[in-house]
Automatic annotation (TrEMBL):
InterPro entries reported for this sequence: 2Fe-2S-bd (IPR002888), 2Fe-2S-bd_dom_sf (IPR036884), 2Fe-2S_ferredoxin-like_sf (IPR036010), 2Fe-2S_ferredoxin-type (IPR001041), Aldehyde_Oxdr_Iron-Sulfur (IPR052914), Beta-grasp_dom_sf (IPR012675)
GO molecular function terms attached to this record: 2 iron, 2 sulfur cluster binding; metal ion binding; oxidoreductase activity, acting on the aldehyde or oxo group of donors
Keywords: 2Fe-2S, Iron, Iron-sulfur, Metal-binding, Oxidoreductase
Pfam families associated with the record: Fer2, Fer2_2
Protein name: (2Fe-2S)-binding protein
Source domain of life: Archaea
Domain 2Fe-2S ferredoxin-type span(s) in chain numbering: 8-84
Length: 164
């Protein structure tokens, strides 16, 4: 069986830049991001969409990249933590996570921020603590920084998603 049978050319926007690449149709988005584009914020955790460490934004919705096939993002916009801000210009959520000490080991942090960003980008009207907890429920923090994470997200929402 020919390996070219399992390849497809895809084009999508990655962290604001259009990219085109040929991928094996069986390749996950997580593997494409980490191995081809060398983006390290999405982490391999459970490989079952349970832990949220691999979360990225696809068309402004948080998804687990460990089970999504790379070919599924053809024509989409994908944003990783690297695309939210830079070292000199952090996203308000990144600033709030620092301000509220909402991270310890850091393994879950990118997934937590991506899920919170999805909530902020898609919120309509008032957002309760329960709404925030629900939006972050797919992210596991082994260190137990949940209260600080909640406070950081609430702070950014209160500021309207703007500067911290």
């Amino acid at each position: 069986m020919s390996e070219t049978k399992f390849r497809k050319k895809i084009t999508f926007k990655l962290n604001g830049k259009e990219v085109t690449t040929s991928v094996d149709t069986r390749l996950t988005l997580l593997d494409l991001l980490r191995d081809t584009f060398r983006l390290t914020s999405p982490k391999r955790g459970c490989d079952e969409t349970v832990c949220g460490a691999c979360a990225v934004l696809v068309n402004n919705r948080a998804i687990c990249s460990c089970t999504m096939l790379a070919v599924e993002v053809d024509g989409s916009e994908v944003i990783t933590l690297e695309g939210l801000g830079s070292e000199n210009n952090l996203d308000p959520l990144q600033e709030a996570f620092i301000k509220f000490d909402a991270l310890q080991c850091g393994f879950c942090t990118s997934g937590q921020i991506i899920s919170a960003k999805s909530l902020i980008l898609n919120m309509k009207g008032e957002v309760s603590d329960e709404d925030i907890k629900e939006a972050l429920s797919g992210n596991i923090c082994r260190c137990g920084a949940y209260n600080n994470i909640l406070q950081a997200v609430k702070y950014v929402i209160k500021k309207g998603g703007k500067e911290v």
